[in-house]
Amino acid sequence: MKIWVAAALALTVTGCAPSRDNHEDLSPAKSREARQAAPAPARTAAPARSRPRIAVLGDSLTAGLGVAKAAAYPSLLQERLDAAGLDFEIVNAGVSGDTSAGGLARLDWALDGDVRILIVALGGNDGLRGLPAEELQSNLAQIIQKAQLRGITVILAGMEAPPNYGRDYIVSFHKVYPALAATYRVALVPFLLQGVAGDEALNQRDGIHPTAAGARIVADNVWAVLKPIAEARRRPTT
């Protein structure tokens, strides 16, 4: 079983303040002044066709803390969807410092619009804070249930607890993700940071957040599970 690196003891994801630069604003609005200053169009343009969405509900690992927005793994997933001709819009609903409880609290915001697939990538901060694994399981279960009631396909990304809380906690934390995947029949990314955690060359100085190179591997981990699901849920051709 792979676990978080010991650097988690010195710096936790929970201390990161939310940043609008690292996640997408789902409800942008133009100011009244901008609307008044804009010239009236000669004719009304047809509204742009909206694309079905894939929301990625996560923390600073999803938000892309410490790397450019384009280098965060949700942006890389968008590039792969586009290259594969899969007509989805990725919504980066990552907020730095979020626990599973925080993700549950803002779930309705994350599911705004025509969301077809939800990637749940939460739990890192629960583990770093030593929050009970039972609470993590309950919060994630509620997220999955609410999404499934809307007909949304869920992908669950696993996380591991840091080593400082002892073996019992590490094992109980680890078991949460496969248990939920089996109970709710959702696809599982076994460990979001597989191939990245513990590798100094792929992590920033805090030892927690991936570099741009590390984010590409994270995208690989998620893409392996997302691609067949996106293909199955693509907009039917007419």
List keywords for this structure.
238 residues; alpha/beta; Rossmann fold; 9 helices; 5 strands
Cα shape: globular
User: What string gives the helices and strands in order?
Assistant: HEHHEHHEHHEHEH
Could you tell me the CATH topology label: Rossmann fold
Major sheet: arrangement of strands: 2-1-3-4-5
Notes on the protein architecture:
The chain is α/β, with parallel strands linked by helices and 238 residues long. 39% of the residues lie in helices and 11% in strands. It is built from nine helices and five strands, in the order αβααβααβααβαβα. It has a five-stranded parallel β-sheet with strand order 2-1-3-4-5, sandwiched between helices. β4, α8 and β5 (187-189) form a beta-alpha-beta unit. α3 (73-83) packs across α9 and α7 (133-149) packs parallel to α8. The longest helix has 22 residues, at 212-233. The N and C termini lie far apart (46 Å).
Outline of the structure:
This protein has 238 residues and is an alpha/beta fold.
